[in-house]
Design goal:
The complex is a heterodimer of chains A (about 110) and B (about 120). Chain A is an all-beta fold and about 110 residues long. Chain A contains no helices and 11 strands. In chain A, about 0% of the residues lie in helices and about 55% in strands. In chain A, strands 2, 4, 5, 9, 10 and 11 form a 6-stranded mixed sheet that branches. In chain A, strands 1-3-8-7-6 form a 5-stranded antiparallel sheet, with no helix packed on it. Chain B is mainly beta. The chains are: A mainly beta (about 110), B mainly beta (about 120).
């Protein structure tokens, strides 16, 4: 079955440093979504990417979808303490299945 | 409508007992999903409804698990003969009916934390 892998599993940064998490799928994805989960909270939808090579920005967050639609990345510029949490990528496979497959997430820890 | 509502928030049960969780999705969302999340892991897909029809079910899902959405609104997830390995956060999510819309994404509830002792 489809597998979605994320690296790194944990990332410690100083406040103000940049952060990047990478997502790779074992199969071609029809689209990819990113979610953020705060400690003790539930996943919150951030964005969906659909097109090959697509790049989208949300303030300090930049999302990319690979040309082959098998990988994606999330980059945060100048991290703030409010960015703390776990960032998940999740993909829909190309076979029509509608259940999103989530990666294990990258836990972002920010030291002030 | 304030979002996806799940009840109860916490459930402690003895091994072998049956438990049932409820999810009330956002009213205009016709798609409803159940996920399970354990500590340090991503949400794991269990099953999905479009209106009242259960369209997809994880192959990993034990036959002790059953879900219903009888009128296409709220949904229930039942676990029969619970085992300690069933201890997890059970998340419900709902979404708009058009997956290709740019802002399509799942809205998750706060979850039901199940502890089997």
């Amino acid at each position: 079955g489809q597998q979605v892998m994320q690296i790194p599993q944990y990332q410690h940064v100083q406040e103000g440093e940049d952060f990047t998490t990478y997502c790779n799928s074992s199969t071609t994805l029809s689209n990819i979504q990113w979610y953020k989960q705060r400690p003790g909270g539930h996943p919150v939808f951030l964005i969906q990417l659909v097109k090959s090579g697509e790049v989208k920005k949300q303030k300090r967050l930049t999302f990319q979808f690979g040309e082959a639609k098998k990988n994606s990345s999330l980059h945060i510029t100048a991290t703030q303490t409010t960015d703390v949490g776990t960032y998940f990528c999740a993909g829909h496979g190309g076979g029509g299945a509608d259940g999103l497959t989530f990666g294990k997430g990258t836990h972002l820890i920010i030291q002030p | 409508d304030t979002g996806v509502s799940q009840n109860p928030r916490h459930k402690i049960t003895k091994r072998g007992q049956n438990v049932t969780f409820r999810c009330d999705p956002i009213s205009e969302h016709n798609r409803l999903y159940w996920y399970r999340q354990t500590l340090g892991q991503g949400p794991e897909f269990l099953t999905y409804f479009q209106n009242e029809a259960q369209l997809e079910k994880s192959r990993l899902l034990s036959d002790r698990f059953s879900a219903e959405r009888p009128k296409g609104s709220f949904s229930t997830l039942e676990i029969q003969r619970t085992e300690q390995g069933d201890s997890a956060m059970y998340l419900c999510a709902s979404s708009l009916p058009r997956p290709r819309q740019p802002n399509y994404g799942y809205t998750f509830g706060s979850g039901t934390r199940l502890t089997v002792v």
